[in-house]
Design a protein that fits this description.
The structure is a single chain. The chain is mainly α. The radius of gyration is 21 Å and the shape is globular. It starts with 10 loop residues before the first helix and ends with a helix.
């Protein structure tokens, strides 16, 4: 047990610690939204240095008041997301586990659900679709889920099921996700559901279609998601669009997309996005069946991506 155990501090100290956690959440979310996860990593390091509870055994914090625990759980969730999108998967896994333990400690089911959904996405991305399905299944509770949360569960299940080789089932799941999304926002939807909007849903619909190699369906959906305004991390839909265009042999459209993406590629703050762009460009460069100008464009994109 650490020195933090049983020492939650006096009233002023608790309030100061709570304000620090809330300010840090706001700063990290703003950095991630505007500039991407890699730009937020230095601020994550600073948070870990300034807030020792982020490195303590969650069980040692049982004497902390629920509000402070909830803030620490939310902050840990935000850090876990940033580490995931920055490509630090092992560290993201550990922070997700911490966030979930803290959320359970204070009974914060809302944050706990988001952590499980993030963990499901991490598991799918790292090639563990069954673990992704297990995490998504744990989101359910004794009452029906709010519409936005239910839609996100179905999205996570659709991706994992497609990765497992399903054909009809992923389409059924993503269709149900659309239906739940159209139920609209309710008072029971959590505060973090603000980012589950039409563009987010379109992107995932297109991505699931692309996993099934249904290019005629995937490409228009991904194009709509990629061209909609939104947070920085949605560059991922642009990367998936390029991958779909190349797989479909849409050479001219792929070359045009690279011409738009490459000049700003160095500023993309998502390792998931740059990794997908890099793999697509490297495959194009090796593809002797692709037009020479497209292979040249792929070279330009590879040179433009951050190291």
């Amino acid at each position: 047990m650490t020195a933090l155990a049983g020492r939650p501090g006096g009233g002023e100290e608790r309030e100061a610690a709570l304000r620090l956690a809330v300010r840090t959440i706001g700063r990290l979310v703003a950095l991630d939204t505007e500039r991407g996860a890699t730009a937020a990593v230095p601020a994550v390091r600073e948070a870990l240095r300034r807030i020792p509870e982020l490195s303590a055994d969650p069980g040692a914090l049982h004497a902390y008041d629920p509000d402070r625990l909830a803030a620490l759980a939310e902050l840990s969730e935000v850090i876990g997301w940033i580490l995931f999108d920055a490509g630090r998967y092992r560290h993201a896994h550990r922070m997700n586990a911490r966030a979930l333990a803290l959320a359970q400690l204070c009974g914060d089911r809302s944050t706990g659900r988001l952590v499980l959904l993030n963990h499901s996405m991490l598991a799918t991305h790292t090639g563990r679709p069954r673990a992704a399905l297990d995490a998504a299944a744990r989101v359910a509770g004794p009452r029906p889920l709010p519409s936005r949360v239910a839609a996100l569960v179905l999205i996570r299940q659709a991706h994992a099921t497609a990765l497992l080789g399903g054909c009809r089932r992923p389409l059924e799941l993503i269709s149900r996700a659309r239906s739940r999304f159209l139920d609209g926002v309710s008072a029971r939807d959590p505060h973090w559901a603000w980012w589950i909007d039409e563009a987010e849903l379109l992107g995932h619909e297109g991505w699931v279609q692309a996993r099934l190699r249904r290019w005629d369906r995937a490409i228009p959906l991904l194009h709509r998601a990629a061209t909609a305004p939104g947070p920085s991390y949605r560059h991922l839909f642009t990367a998936e669009l390029l991958s779909a265009l190349v797989a479909a042999g849409a050479w001219r459209e792929a070359e045009e997309l690279i011409a738009r993406v490459a000049p700003g590629a160095a500023a993309i703050g998502s390792v998931r996005t740059t990794g997908t762009l890099g793999r697509t460009a490297a495959a194009l460069r090796r593809d002797t069946g692709a037009p020479a100008p497209l292979r040249d464009a792929a070279d330009f994109l590879l040179e433009s991506l951050p190291a």
